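Q: Structure tokens for this one, please.
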Amino acid sequence: MSEPVAALTHPALAGAAHGFLGRQGGVSTGVVAGLNVSFSEDDPALTAENRRRVVEAVLPGATLTCCYQVHSPDVVTVTEPWADDARPHADALVTDRTGVLLGVLTADCAPVLFHDRQAGVVGAAHAGWKGAFTGVTDATVAAMEALGATRANIAAVVGPCIAQKSYEVDEGFERRFLEADAQNERFFRAGKPGHAWFDLEGYVADRLRAVGVGTVAMLGEDTYAQEERFYSFRRATHRGEASYGREISVIGLR
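A: Here is the predicted structure, written as tokens:
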């Protein structure tokens, strides 16, 4: 008997069906063994079964709706689900419709789930460093407001992503952030000459607080360091593996 799907949740998102999922409970094998939800790196039948299990574990009967992620600040408002081959190019989704399960795929980037319980609006964002830097979370909050949400009433939780201790970057990367705002220095810790360690989770959380999100939380889970629990692009790259898989974070209204 296979192990059950494991979904991390957070009390700040209570009232919305949600989960930050990792590798546990899936049918994929090999280097992407577990609950891989990427069609590009697996047998499509296995990926489809994994996605079905995600829905059943979090919001049975809902329709999983994802975008074609491109590391942008772009957000799409979902009024009805679309076919997987018709996904819009974007990195965040928002909706006020029930029965729609918004999903973002990650493998070190930060997934962020949003909920305004009073307004009945949810959102999901894929925040890699580029999307975070160019404002994908800011844009998600604005798109939720267009559906009636209020910033002070929004709760946002940053899910499993690569931690600072695992995220070495070069000086050009660091310079980009410091030139945008000298205060971003606090998200970098000095490393070997010409390098630093970047706190993606902390940076994303700070962006959320800066635009007035009422409740901001972080799960503090390092995807790179926990091979049995999460997929990691950087870990697979360091090992020279051909595939790395994706986990998914989802949220929807009942």
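A few notes: Residues 113 and 141 are 11 Å apart (CA to CA). The helical segments are 44-58, 129-134, 136-146, 171-180, 200-210, 233-239.
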